[in-house]
Amino acid sequence: MRTAVLAEPTQFELEERPRPSPGPDDVLVAIRDVGICGSDVHYYEHGRIGDYVVDYPLVLGHESAGEVVDVGEEVTGLEPGDRVALEPGVPCRRCAHCKRGDYHLCEDVRFMATPPHDGAFTEYVSWPADFAYQLPENVSTAEGALCEPLSVGIHACRRGDVGTGDTVLVAGAGPIGLLAMEAARAAGATDIVVSDVVEEKLDFAAERGADLTVDVTETDLETAIDEYTDGVGADVVVEASGADPSIQSTVDAVRRGGTVVLVGLADEATVPFDVLEVIDNEIDVHGSFRYKNTYDAAIDLLADDAVDVEGIVDFESPLDDIEAAFQRAMEPAAIKGMITFDP
Ligand SMILES: NC(=O)C1=CN([C@@H]2O[C@H](COP(=O)(O)OP(=O)(O)OC[C@H]3O[C@@H](n4cnc5c(N)ncnc54)[C@H](O)[C@@H]3O)[C@@H](O)[C@H]2O)C=CC1
Ligand SMILES: CC(=O)[C@H](N)C(=O)O
């Protein structure tokens, strides 16, 4: 099977690898669509993200969906021909975190395209059947692949307890921010403010329904939020940029008693943060790591047309052109690239 292998920084090689056989509890999936995530681009460019260092060769890609072509002997509920979205993190199922239900916090998780685990820029993946979610007829495999970043948005909104009538500030209009905006709207938020430093990103967020956009290179975020909320502040702030100034400004933009959800990964682990403001205003600050139990919700939202994920895809490319696709994904205005495979 044809596989794109990251052989060294900024260097993919296309190689033939043997097609895997599904284990007893696995499904063999012919991959149809794989999104290019910011983390894939980071590994491509720098060979590491924090403590995760690429031991070459590595197969990238963790936002994937495709068609089941074979099933292990113990698998029930899925059969060849079914289209599925693959949840990329398979936990150990035995540790204290897994047993508590926080399987996304499992320290032995096998997460696609996070070293040393291979991902989905390949023609076939064998994957545990319970982490393969059947797609209804009206949900495409491209949408199935984007259940992954949508899940990050859904989990962030759950962490922030976003509810009916809320005003939500989403900081950062990359794919994660844009899909957090979709998830917030679906959770009942009626006012969504999006901040960014790139005008095109904000224009795109506005086209996709942001009620207010704030270019923080020109406008003070706290002032803009104060004006929009009559001095109250946002009920929930979802920080999805990872930029230090944005992280710091979350406590100024949120209302007293509101919630800040930190999703964006800061370059440095330590960011100066006004703790007194957190205490005085009784702000709940939550970290949000990946997601758990979101795929069914993501697929239901897609089937009901309650969210739009395909609209964030701005370019598609076949596997053979993956190098060019990654070069394009590195452009500042790029949003979401998708590697597509012929059926
Ligand atoms: N916690 C988690 O489980 C996950 C975290 N992430 C992280 O979430 C963040 C967002 O991911 P993507 O959307 O893929 O990244 P992205 O890089 O495409 O988007 C970030 C956006 O933030 C904007 N930005 C930069 N400085 C800003 C500022 N001061 N204020 C507001 N916006 C600013 C950028 O212009 C860009 O549009 C990244 O840090 C990524 O590593 C991604 C997936 C999962
Ligand atoms: C941090 C990322 O972008 C990646 N999606 C991951 O969950 O590791």
TrEMBL record:
One of the Pfam families matching this protein, by short name: ADH_N
Keywords: Metal-binding, NAD, Oxidoreductase, Zinc
Descriptive protein name: L-threonine 3-dehydrogenase
GO term, biological process aspect, one: protein homotetramerization
Domain of life: Archaea
Region of interest: Disordered: 1-24
InterPro entries: ADH-like_C, ADH-like_N, ADH_Zn_CS, ER, GroES-like_sf, NAD(P)-bd_dom_sf, SDH-like
Originating species: Haloarcula nitratireducens
Catalyzed reaction equations: L-threonine + NAD(+) = (2S)-2-amino-3-oxobutanoate + NADH + H(+)
Cofactor(s) required, per the database record: Zn(2+)
Pathways per UniProt: Amino-acid degradation; L-threonine degradation via oxydo-reductase pathway; glycine from L-threonine: step 1/2
Residue ranges of every copy of the Enoyl reductase (ER) domain listed in the record: 7-339
Keyword Transmembrane attached: no
Similarity remark: Belongs to the zinc-containing alcohol dehydrogenase family.
GO molecular-function term, one example from the UniProt record: NAD+ binding
Enzyme class: oxidoreductase
Leader sequence segment: none
EC number, as in UniProt: 1.1.1.103
